[in-house]
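Human:
Care to share another protein and its fold?

Assistant:
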Amino acid sequence: MRCRPRVDIVRTPLLVDMPPRDALWLEVDLRHQHLVVWQGEEAGKTHAISSGLAGAGQQQGSGQTPLGWHYVRASIGNGLAPGTVFRGRRPTGEIFDEALASEPPGRDWILTRILWLCGLERGFNRGGDRDSQRRYIYLHGTPPSEPMGVAASHGCIRMRDESLLEIATFAVPGTPVWIHE
């Protein structure tokens, strides 16, 4: 059973109805650890994710994945090779491999593409110390050794390269994203 959002939860200058009834949008379900691609009211493909190990929440520095309505602020890395390593939203010139994985251990790798999210709900996930964009919350690639389907990230939403590459082709800046438990 799919959890259906209210279509008029948030009204902003960017998007009048959340989501637009006929537009493409993404649903991130933290409870089930998956992302669903929607076209209006039609559910499409489902992809496994890994959200924040610390659970859900908006607070700066919490390591939690923020809830509520967002939109894709920027798509970073289009045209770069799968496995491209990013630091500070810029490619380092490296492609992730096993040798690179060994140094430094425990690093939260950001690979392949970055879909940078911006909150749409003032006081909840936008503004002050609860701002998803200022928290640098992304959908991003992760090494194959990292688990999917379980919460394990530092707050971002991790995905397998294949899924992220597919989504990045159509989840352009402005695409609505609803994150819920």
Notes: Confidence is low (pLDDT under 50) at residues 1-16. DSSP finds two helices and ten strands in the chain.
